[in-house]
DNA sequence: ATTAGGG
DNA sequence: CCCTAAT
């Protein structure tokens, strides 16, 4: 029985990996539509769209977020420099094939640091599944997200992709319905997020089945996942480790990853008991580790660990600040980033601080950037709408120590 | 426990 | 991102 499921799963995954990019990447498109709508909606009015609620499960998938960034970029008329595409919704844009677009995207260095097939091997979904999903989770997820794609025209992936693209486009173009959405109360949002905790140990039911179970049992909030970890390794220990094996990036990733997990959720639930379970990597940790950014080895030693912010995240953050105001980072974290085990409130604040800095700088250099914007320059500017909102918020909720530089600035 | 500031 | 002081 168990083996049956496993083999089924494996087969399923095999199928997935054979999928073409344009096929299995498509589910993210609709999602993106909701995200964009969400963003486009006026911050002060209700902007949690019904779509978002309905789709919140899908939204949890990190891979979707990745795609969102690109699609956001399209919305802002960004240039896909290497693809030779000017902007998707231009006149000629209508004729673009989805795969062409994706090709351009793949060449672009914008936030595409993860291979697609890999992403599907680490499905993370809402915890609601968690209970019933211990044995057959991955199957359900994969099937639901892929079957829909294959269904319409199983013979021709291209065609399917094309159609879906239109679905997406039409959806995000008509931003009308978004505005009249019901604004969820705080409680609603809370509920949503609680059941929405996407960093749940579903990363790889296949790989660490038992462990998932053990750590899921206690799961209720977003912090309980770490229960396995009883004791924080001493800093010396960590340093020792990284010094002893200067060799592989394995160390570069692993050590920081662990220390990262300690931060943010220090003692809350951690009992005094101590039995070392270091060898046991909980699913969430596995996922965490798995998703850890891959970058040059040189950067590894400087920043212990870092995860690049996606556009979607930035937008979410800006929205959160618009709602709750600057300074209430714990609230924002709990309500909007409950699904992200990383991104501590401090991270949010840091990000905001950086956003302020960069967006003001971007205003200054706007013209210069467009001229000098040879693809070589790794600086990818924020979409103007985002910058706009950031600056607006900056004036409304002045950030200590930085606000002065903004107030006398007119944009 | 959280936040502001600085590194 | 990390750390610390202050609240």
Automatic annotation (TrEMBL):
Record GO cellular component, one term: nucleus
Keywords: Nucleus
Pfam families on file: Myb_DNA-binding (PF00249)
Entries under PROSITE patterns matching the protein: HTH_MYB, MYB_LIKE
Keyword Nucleus: yes
UniProt domain HTH myb-type: residue ranges: 301-360
SMART domains: SANT
Primary location: nucleus
Classification via InterPro entries: Homeodomain-like_sf, Myb_dom, SANT/Myb
Compartments where located: Nucleus
Domain Myb-like stretches: 301-356
PANTHER family on file: MYB-LIKE DNA-BINDING DOMAIN CONTAINING PROTEIN, EXPRESSED (PTHR47122), TRF-LIKE 8 (PTHR47122:SF5)
Name of the protein in question: TRF-like 8
